[in-house]
Amino acid sequence: MVDSNASIDTVFRALGEPTRLRMIQELSRGERTIGDLAEPLDMTLAGASKHIGVLEQAGLLTREKRGRERVCRLRPEALLAARDWTQKYSAFWNDRLDALDAAIREQDDE
User: Fold this and answer.
1) Whole-model pTM?
2) HTH arsR-type domain location, by residue (predicted)?
């Protein structure tokens, strides 16, 4: 789960920004340096580092210093909290969509 100091709203806020979401997608393929994450986004290391800090605070990644580089690694277990939260509401939405489907079919039959 997410670190005790990172709440689900922090996770969703971190994932809700397109740049950070792209970084997470890149990290899902393996470890990356800050430079590796910044390059395809055409941003400075300082800019990338700010986004990485938000992701780290949300518990979505870890940073490790290796020589002169900072290597980032995805913490996929943190994504489980987001998955679990959304699954709680899947039954609700399935019921609503089933009701909508039934209403549309009923209207089409008239």
Assistant:
1) 0.75
2) 1-94
Number of domains in the chain: 1
- What does the H/E/C string look like for the chain? CCCCCCCHHHHHHHHCCHHHHHHHHHHCCCCEEHHHHHHHHCCCHHHHHHHHHHHHHCCCEEEEEECCEEEEEECHHHHHHHHHHHHHCHHHHHHHHHHHHHHHHHHHHC
CATH of residue 29's domain is 1.10.10.10
pLDDT attached to residue 48: 96
Query: How many whole angstroms separate alpha carbon 86 and alpha carbon 46?
Result: 33
Range in 44-48, 60-64, 96-100 the model is least confident about: 96-100
- The parent domain of residue 44 ranges over 8-109
CA–CA gap between residue 100 and residue 39 (Å, rounded): 45
